[in-house]
Amino acid sequence: MHKHYHVPKTYFLTHSVGCLPKQTSDDVAKDFFGPWQASGGNAWPDWLGILTRFRVSMGEILGVSGNTICPQTNVSSALTKIIHSLPMRKGRDVILLSEQDFPTIGFALKQAERAGYKLKFITGNITDAQVWADAMDNTVAVAHITHALSNTSHLLPVADICKAAKAADIITIVDIAQSVGIVPIHIPDWQADFVIGTSVKFMCGGPGACFMYASDEMIELSHPIDVGWFSHENPFEMDIRDFRYADDAMRFFGGTPSPAPFAAALSAHTLLNKSGIEAAHIYVQSVLNDLVSELEDGVLVSPRNAAQRGGTLVVAPGGVAPKHRTQFTESLNAANILFDEREEGFRFSFHHYTPKEDVKTLSDVLNRL
Fold first, then answer.
1. What is residue 327's predicted lDDT score, i.e. its pLDDT?
2. Residue 183, helix vs strand vs coil
């Protein structure tokens, strides 16, 4: 698949931004700029068709109906829309989350305190479903679960956590930003209430094309505050005194959409589907298996077990000693390897376009740890 993408040499940053498919520029020119150039204001029928196709395509990738998918600008907005659409339940005012969630999750959920919620951070081993279950008392309203942890690449047992939450009458929101596109996901297997994600990373669709899934039950239950004319049952009815929520996930949408990011994302979907997420996952986990087999436990942060791991390798040479980090950074820079660093360690991600020769370059540096 390497030939189909613009891939910088020794690029291991897909967990940040997925590489641009070579066909995307032409596809966006045709689907977004083409109607605009040809018909001006009459481009809207074609532009709205982009959103419909995105919903259907994203639904197929996740194993759900397109009617349960709502396009979003970013994950933070999607999470905020969800939280403030739910009815408050007497005695249930706690939102469970983890300190290992991406910081934007905590920032967005912190604002829920204005509505009367309290935040409770899971302590202990968050990859253990029982740890979550033990925290799910009758004060908990919502549990936010990150599928793939961005700083370690651990996969959480989402299905088991959601099962425990459902038994405790707790609403679940699953963040798949770091897993969608590289880990096969079938939402019905989880029985999650909501799922939120982005196209910018392993989906290779660029920023601005995010999404949320809402189960049929949650669509019926939710009444978003952040609405606009595209949240309406009939956006083109144009009666300012009569707002009725859309009967599907579009009630979470809001105002006038920006179709261009979703045109780019659709182009990436086409290419990703050509090889398949399952094939990409198998290739990446094979590469990771080879790499982790060369690393000692004191260096490896990510799981050794492929079933517990996303598409990213995280290592911490010499623990957190600044001297070792500096030496390792110098070695990576000398090899022109593109990577990033968090407190937990150095991050390297892989996709179906990552060539074997680049993996060998990284392996040589890792072997010098």
1. 87
2. coil
DSSP state of 338: B
Task: Yes or no: say if 143 and 173 are a contact pair by the CB < 8 Å rule.
Answer: yes
The letter for the amino acid at 1 is M
Taking each helix axis as running N to C, give the angle between helix 356-367 and helix 322-334, from 0 to 180 degrees, rounded to the nearest 10: 150
Quick: pLDDT tens for 13-52.
Answer: 999 999 999 999 999 999 999 999 999 889 999 999 999 9
Q: Is residue 345 within 8 Å of 316, Cβ to Cβ?
A: yes
Those residues whose C-beta lies under 8 Å from the C-beta of residue 109, and which sit 6 or more positions away, are: 79, 83, 95, 97, 117, 119, 144
All domains of the chain in start order, with CATH = 24-272 (3.40.640.10), 276-367 (3.90.1150.10)
| pLDDT of res. 298 | 85
Burial class (CB in 10 A: 0-12, 13-18, 19+), 38: exposed
Residues of the chain with pLDDT under 70: 318-321
CB-CB contact of 121 with 106 (8 Å): no
3-class DSSP state for residue 35? helix
- 231: how many CB neighbours lie within 10 A of its CB? 21
Give the per-residue pLDDT at 78: 97
Could you please report the per-residue DSSP string of 80-126? Answer: HHHHTTSPPBTTB-EEEE-TTS-HHHHHHHHGGGGGT-EEEE--S-T
Residues 6 or more apart in contact with residue 211 via CB below 8 angstroms: 54, 58, 69, 70, 71, 72, 78, 196, 197, 198, 199
Amino acid identity at 7: V
